[in-house]
Amino acid sequence: MAYGDFIAVNKLDLAVNRGECFGLLGPNGAGKTTAVEAFEGLNAPTAGTIEILGRSWSKNERKNRSLREKIGVTLQETWFPEKLTVWETLRLFVSFHKNRADIAALSESMGIAHKRDARVGNLSGGERQRLALACALAGKPEILFLDEPTTGLDPNARHGIWTGIEAFAKDGGTVLLTTHYMEEASRLCHRVGIMDQGAIKSLGTCDELIRMLPAPSLVELAINGEVARKAAESVPGVKEAQSRGDGSVLYAFDPVTLLPGLLAFLAENGLKHTAVKTRDATLEDVFMHLTGKTLTSP
Fold it and tell me: I need a surface site. Which of 32, 75, 183, 252 has the fewest CB within 10 A?
């Protein structure tokens, strides 16, 4: 996908299996939304082909309509008529489809049944997102496309959305979601593609991606990259050092056994009061190791 000379998505080669929840993980501006809008048929790719359920988007609107019946979509921002009630909104979206979901069951499963008579304009952010997900499910789709479905939500609202996505997947539905939340990808996704600058940098299960790191554990230190690299060279057990913002991390297989040598190194370099923290590696560490960026980088 290109806009003039700017390439938003570059040679994206991706296959999502039926019944799978697949996540595109990356910071804002990585190309996730552009890719998903092409999958949804909202934008035509400037090169390459897209197949959804064995069919491609075409110039034949009748064929496209039959394919749209099989997908559900939530965008980054969804705007509903604010004077309609939740029930009226759901009834409207269900009416668009031949294969119609039961409104009562749908609102119950999304946790908004108690809001059936509330006007959309009076809903909280989390309730609006659950309503958006319910509308995406109004036609009993086979595939859900979710573009950062929980951005800006508080933890309780986020978990409510996750529950709805998990219920759809449990019933055999296929999900492709974009996110920059590591916890979201870890909980929901069978596989994850780490995306940056319009391309997939790495792809696999969460465990597979973490195993690609130099070591599965990290030691976080408030020291600069040059000192961290010296530590990696002189302290036994350190596999690699990497700068992280104002500090650094050391990759290790057993951080506890290297602590005595590391503390001695810090003392020798006048850094004996430096805070030291050990933890297991995460998907965000995979992303930072691949790109040098945080998942929230613009």
Answer: 183
